[in-house]
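User: My collaborator sent over this chain with a note saying "see what the structure looks like." That's all I know about it. Can you take a look?
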Amino acid sequence: MSLESSSVVLRDRKRAGVSVSEVDTGARLVAGLTSTLEPDEALRIRRKIDRYVMPLMCVLYVIQFMDKLTLGSAAILGIQQATHLTTNEYNWLGTVFYLGYILFEYPQNLALQRFPVGKWMSVNIFAWAIVLACHAACKSFRGLLVVRLLLGVCEGSITAGFLIVSSMFYTRTEQTLRVGYWSLMIGTAQIISGFISFGVLHIKTTGFEPWQWLMVITAIMTMILAISFWFLFPDSPTNAWFLTPDERVKAVQRLKENQTGVENKHFKMEQVIEALTDPKTWLFALLSALCNVPSSLLNQQSLILASFGFSYLQTTLLSCIPGVIQVLTVFTGVRLAIRRPNSRAYVAAMYFVPAWLGVLLVNLLPWSNRAGLLAGQFLAGFTVPGFVLTLSWLNNVTAGHTKKVVTNATILSAYCIGNAAGPLMWKAQYKPRNHIPWAVIGTCYVVCPLLLLVIRAVLARENRIRDAEPVDDGEEYVIERITEDGKHVEVKVDKEFLDLTDRQNRDFRYVL
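Assistant: Without extra context I'll predict from the sequence alone. Here is the result:
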């Protein structure tokens, strides 16, 4: 059958022809399918997807975050002295990364819709490996400013791409745990980066300092991953190389419960407008920005630990501990969220409580109490599950491929604003106690859980409105195809694969 000659029509009520580009790519595989997918077979397909997709996603997120952490690690490896950086210049290097990220976030997301997802991410990984290696050649603030800006541009495709891939391969129930798995790599990256920093600190070479070795080593790792990604990472379940044609159909069939389809390469302006006028988009954006203002602690962490009186060697090892904490908190957070249905907001909000305790300890304990200050510093990092659950939640409550792309770009742009603003508050005049930055962080830790609860209330109200609406089961959609011998045939397609937005599809229910 010729797919190029397909159109979607609504039988009986109206017959408005729609181009095949309007239809979700998954619809073209499962149209006319009447058989049901057995639970055991669905589980087998999911496990196969896990084996081929999750390892690459996890490794890439480790590498991405290690690359992002290189500036913070390099701070105690001599980069400030070698390139004559002032405190404000060092902070600007953390900010400019996110300026590059935000400037290209919408173009990156549109490219992820236009081009094969895996291939586009591979190109960006390759480019950022080159940029990362160029860090080692920089001798001044200006040079570092340029490469940090370009690094942000390249890395802007990864989280957005991962959100799209997670929604293409997994059900809404499965996405929370899978987003949690690749987010666990944030903590893993901190652990690995700490040990690499500890190792390079022992390298003694003339004319090439430890911080330069750190950049080169991480660049080589990134380059190897870029090549692997190009050949091994799938673009979609509809063409995944490791699935047989029959398994591809079943992989798409598994996603019917999502009410979101797989993907659509056709850009729809009406979905752009809906994304930008949807109140929940901006609630999630505000939450994303405020959650990430405290992320500036990542680049400041080594300097703060050193200010407590620890040696550089001790600091490199102590910087591994927040990574362990993040792994444990993210793992427990996503596990709690999936074990208790509709509890995402409550679980995410819960992790801000110990973080607030950490802020109080760092600010109120005497400077001589190193153990207490250290505990407070580590407790302040407990909030990571809040943002991880927010990302998976956002993926679950947005439908329509163009709307999802635009919403992701908006939320990740807000993420950049928070991350870009954060480093600017760590000014030299606030040292060593840094009361002003900590006060800002504490404020964010109060507002964020409140926003989570507001979002939950808004979505719950919308669900109640939809539950009260009369059920409309009289619509039937079909794909019209022209066979090789010229005959017109109509094949039924499920509503779930029509690339409708969460507003257009009144059968869509928001998870809470």
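A starting point for your reply to your collaborator: Residues 1-19 have pLDDT under 50 and may be disordered.
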